[in-house]
Amino acid sequence: MDGRSAEDRRVPKAWFAALVLAAAVGALAAGLWAYLSHAPALRRPGLGLDVPGAWAGQDPADVVVAARWNLAFVAGYGTALLLATQTARWTFWTPKAAAVARLGRCATWTAVAMATAENLVLVRVAGEAAPGTSRGAAVGAVLATVKWASLVPATLVAILGAV
Fold first, then answer.
1. What is this structure's pTM?
2. Hey, how many other C-beta atoms are within 10 angstroms of the C-beta on 64?
3. pLDDT of 128 above 80
4. C-alpha to C-alpha distances, 15 to 6, 29, 80, 136, nearest whole angstrom
5. How far apart are CA 133 and CA 56, in angstroms?
6. N-term to C-term CA, the chain
């Protein structure tokens, strides 16, 4: 016995798994479309909120609108990763592989939570005179780092579960 419940070992028909993966791709596409078609274009010289002057010259209202539309993108890729990591739970049978699938699910939830928090921080610091030097910007940079560190294993598990 590998320690997993009968619920975890129940594998759906191939057509249903394909439908779940198609829904994952659709969720990702919908989130990406919502962000790219509605969010204003921002000039971004740095990779993180902590870069001094990263948001200098940006209209704070545009930064807030972009951060809000980014939440739609986060919902899209979060849904896609959750669906794809579910397929990994269906296909990863050994105890170690099942633990990796659970890690992918946990990493997905962590990435979505950190991305959401990062956007909320960005909305808060958007109107500051020097947002790259504030404590809020430093918190946002930490959140972004954790988000990206979580997205890597979540995405790898999702891809392996889909293959």
1. 0.79
2. 17
3. no
4. 21, 21, 18, 47
5. 11
6. 25
